Amino acid sequence: MSQMTMQRVLVMGCSGSGKSTFACKLAAQRGLPFVSIDQIYWQPGWVEPRASEFSARMTCEAEKPAWVMDGNYTSHGASELRRERADTVIWFDLPRWLCMLSVVHRIVAGYGRVRPEMTPGCPERLDLVFLRYVWNYRAVHRPTALAYFAKLRPDQQFVTFTRRAEAKAFLVRAEAA
After folding, report:
1. How many CA atoms lie within 13 A of 94 on its CB side?
2. pTM greater than the 0.70 cutoff
3. Are 114 and 43 in contact (CB under 8 A)?
4. Which of 14, 88, 94, 130 has the fewest CB atoms within 10 Å, measured from its CB?
5. Cα separation of 169 and 155, whole Å?
6. How far apart are CA 62 and CA 81, in angstroms?
7. Would you state the pLDDT for residue 77?
8. pLDDT at position 1, please?
9. Coil vs helix vs strand at 124
10. Which residues contact residue 128 at a Cβ distance below 8 angstroms, ignoring those fewer than 6 apart?
């Protein structure tokens, strides 16, 4: 499958890996809707939704004909449907130190402001639980992601970035295509 046929793209990886920035750029390049799973999940004030509500909202988004969807949430929220419907899955498998550095920079630079891909009412904040999630991602959540990717079909494109330069090069190729 080539970059020309991408219509439903799942962009996944650790927080701070650059997946949201990449997903926004890819969606704009391809003229596809950008879907932030964080924006669907979080309610104002960092309130978690009921599982059934989140799953219904994700199902609605995943059933659309085209999207670039940014986020993980593989244990709930129509994750099987998202994987099934995706023609391309892009995974940011970057080093822990880089993700941690990026997240800390994001917190410092944007403290108290809401990022564009977040729900209004969810400003950037210092959250030790979130920092622990990022720190432990490779040991705790990476194996879950690998198991999720192992269920991709042969007709689905799977792309892994281990460096941000690879993601930038991919966008250059996508723009040229």
Report:
1. 24
2. yes
3. no
4. 130
5. 23
6. 7
7. 67
8. 42
9. strand
10. none
Taking the C-alpha atoms of residue 117 and residue 11, their distance in angstroms, rounded to an integer, is 13
Q: Give the number of other Cβ atoms within 10 Å of residue 107's Cβ.
A: 16
User: Residue type for 110, please?
Assistant: G
Instruction: For each of the domains in the chain, give its residue range(s) and CATH number, in order of start.
Output: 3-176 (3.40.50.300)
N-terminal to C-terminal alpha carbon distance within the chain: 13
Backbone angles phi, psi at 54, to 5 degrees: -60, -45
- Which amino acid, residue 1? M
Sign of CA dihedral 64, 147, 16, 123: positive
Nearest CA to 18 among 82, 73, 80, 70? 70
Place of tokens 């892009």: 90
DSSP 56-121: HHHHHHHTSS-EEEE---TTSSSHHHHHHH-SEEEEE---HHHHHHHHHHHHHHHBTS--TTSPTT
Give CA separation, 155 vs 1, 12, 81, 85, in Å.
7, 19, 16, 11
Say which residues have a Cβ less than 8 Å from residue 47's Cβ, sequence separation at least 6: none
Q: Give the CA distances from residue 100 to residues 72, 137, 177, in Å, rounded to whole numbers and listed in that order.
A: 17, 10, 33
Weakly modelled stretches of the chain, pLDDT under 50: 1
